[in-house]
Design a protein that fits this description.
The chain is mainly alpha-helical. It has nine helices and no strands. Helix 4 runs parallel beside helix 7 and helix 5 packs antiparallel against helix 9.
Length: 198
C-alpha cells in the first residue's frame, strides 16, 4: 500500500494495518508486522495507542470515516446518475467490480472484521455500530430522494429499506468472500433493484 502524502505516523500505522488486516485477521496480525510495514519502532505504536484493542477501535474509526466519505461522495453526486435508485445500484456495482478486480478477495475491512471483533470487544463493536448508523443515514437519504422522484416504491418504509440493503449487502459480501465468486453480490444487486423499484 502506498503511503499518503503528509500522513502522520499514526495515520501511516492505521493505513498499513488496514491493508495487512484484509489479508489476515485482527487476532493473527502482530504489531511487529504492522510496524515493519511503516518502519517505525514499537514505542511509536504505544505512543499513539494504549493497547491493541484501542488500536482496533481507532482502526475501525479511521476506516469507517474514509468509507463514509467515499459512500457520501457517490450517493450525493447527482451529476452522473440523477435517478436515486440508479445511483444506489451503480454504487453497489462499483463495489462488486472492485471485489472482482481484487481476485474475489476481501475489499472491506468492516466485512472482514465484524464477525471476529463484535464478540471480542465492546469498544470495537460500538465503533462498528456507530459506523453502520452513519452509513444507514446516507442510504435513507437516497431512499427518500428516490421516493420523491418516483423511482423507489413509496410503499416501502425507509428504515425497512435501509435494513434490507445493509443486511443483504453484508451477507452477499460475506458469501462472495467464502465462495470466491461474485454471484452472491450480483444476485443481491438484482434483488435490491427489483425490490426497491417503484
Amino acid at each position: 500500500m502506498s503511503e499518503r502524502f503528509g500522513a502522520t505516523t499514526k495515520e501511516r500505522i492505521l493505513d498499513a494495518a488496514e491493508g495487512l488486516m484484509l489479508e489476515k485477521s485482527f487476532h493473527s496480525l502482530g504489531l511487529t508486522e504492522i510496524l515493519a510495514a511503516v518502519n517505525v519502532p514499537k514505542g511509536s505504536f504505544y505512543h499513539h495507542f494504549e493497547s491493541k484493542e484501542q488500536f482496533g477501535i481507532e482502526l475501525l474509526r479511521h476506516y469507517m470515516a474514509r468509507a463514509y466519505e467515499h459512500k457520501r461522495t457517490w450517493l450525493q453526486d447527482r451529476s452522473q446518475f440523477p435517478d436515486a435508485l440508479e445511483r444506489l445500484v451503480r454504487y453497489l456495482e462499483a463495489g462488486m467490480a472492485k471485489f472482482v478486480e481484487n481476485g474475489c478477495r476481501p475489499i472491506c475491512l468492516v466485512v472482514k472484521l465484524c464477525g471476529e471483533v463484535a464478540t471480542f470487544s465492546d469498544g470495537m463493536r460500538e465503533e462498528l455500530a456507530a459506523g453502520f448508523a452513519q452509513w444507514d443515514k446516507l442510504s435513507a437519504d437516497v431512499i427518500r430522494e428516490g421516493q420523491k422522484q418516483g423511482s423507489i416504491a413509496k410503499s416501502l418504509g425507509v428504515q425497512e429499506a435501509v435494513t434490507v440493503i445493509g443486511s443483504l449487502w453484508l451477507g452477499a459480501m460475506l458469501q462472495a468472500q467464502v465462495m470466491r465468486n461474485v454471484s452472491p453480490m450480483r444476485e443481491a444487486v438484482a434483488f435490491l433493484r427489483s425490490h426497491l423499484a417503484a
